[in-house]
Amino acid sequence: MENLLRYIHSLTGFSPGNWRALEPALTTIVFSKDEYLLQAGKVCDALFFVSSGYCRAFYNKDGQDINTAFFFENDIATNINSLATGEKSDFSIQASEPLTAIRFDIKKLREVSLLDPAIEALGRKCLQQIAAKQEKHAAMFKLMSPQERYEFLEEHDPGLLQRVSLTQLSSYLGVARETLSRIRSRR
Q1: pLDDT at residue 127 above 90?
Q2: What are the pLDDT digits (tens) for 6-24?
Q3: Strand order in the sheet with 26-31
Q4: Order of strands across the sheet that contains 92-95
Q5: Which residues, in sequence order, are CB contacts of 33 under 8 Å at separation 6+?
Q6: Where are the domains of the chain?
Q7: What's the CATH number for 2-143?
Q8: Would the pTM count as exceeding 0.85?
Q9: 3-state secondary structure the chain
Q10: pLDDT at residue 155 in the model
Q11: What would the pLDDT profile of 64-78 be if each residue is shown by its tens digit?
Q12: What is the pLDDT of residues 135-159, one digit of tens each?
C-alpha cells in the first residue's frame, strides 16, 4: 500500500484522515499469470492500481488478441467507459505475469468521495491520468508509422520493450510479428 500512497501524493494532497476514509474501498488482490482483472462482456466496477507485475488490455477480434494497452507498476488499469456508464466492457484486462493489484471498489469509492472532497479529487486525477495515456496511444497511431511508434517506445517507454513479448508488442504496434522483427533488426 506504500506505493499506492506515494502515487496518491504525487497526484494530490492527501491527509491521514483522507487515507482512513479511502481504505474501506481498497482490497489487495494477487492474480496469477493469465488471470483476468476484467473480462470482456462484464461490467467494470473497479480501478486496479498495479503494485507489482503487469497486465494488458486487449480486444479479441475473430479469435485474435489485439493489445491496446499495458499497465505496469504504479499504473491504474480500468475500462473508463464501462465504469462510467455501467455498460459491458468490450475488452479484457489480463495479468501477463503474476500481478498484485490494489482494487478500488467503484461503489465504495463513490460513497466516500461524496463525503470527502480530497477523495473525489483523487478519483478525477486518476481518470485524467488514464485518459492522457489513452490519448497518447491514439495519437501515436494517427501520427506515426510503425517504425516511428517503435522508436517512440524505445525513447519513452523502454521498459515496455523489455518486458512484453514480441507477439504482444507487434499486436500493440499494429504490425505483423515479422514486420516488428524487421524494424528491430534495423535498429
Answers
A1: no
A2: 999 999 889 999 999 999 9
A3: 26-31, 99-105, 46-52, 76-77
A4: 36-38, 92-95, 55-61, 64-71
A5: 95, 96, 97, 98, 99
A6: 2-143
A7: 2.60.120.10
A8: yes
A9: CHHHHHHHHHHCCCCHHHHHHHHHHEEEEEECCCCEEECCCCECCEEEEEEECCEEEEEEECCEEEEEEEECCCCEECCHHHHHHCCECCCEEEECCCEEEEEEEHHHHHHHHHHCHHHHHHHHHHHHHHHHHHHHHHHHHHHCCHHHHHHHHHHHCHHHHHHCCHHHHHHHHCCCHHHHHHHHHHC
A10: 94
A11: 999 999 999 999 999
A12: 988 999 899 999 999 999 999 999 9
Residue 41 identity (one-letter amino acid): G
Q: Which three cell numbers stand for residue 24?
A: 474501506
Strand partners, 105: 46
Q: Beta strand 36-38 with 92-95: parallel, antiparallel or unpaired? A: antiparallel
The answer to whether the beta carbons of residues 48 and 78 sit under 8 Å apart is: yes
Nearest to 167 by CA among 156, 182, 181: 181
- Residue 102: Cβ-neighbour burial (10 angstroms; 0-12, 13-18, 19+): buried
Percent over 70 (pLDDT), the chain: 99
Report pLDDT for 137: 87
The predicted model gives 99-110 an average pLDDT of 96
* Neighbouring C-alpha atoms within 13 Å toward the C-beta of 107: 4
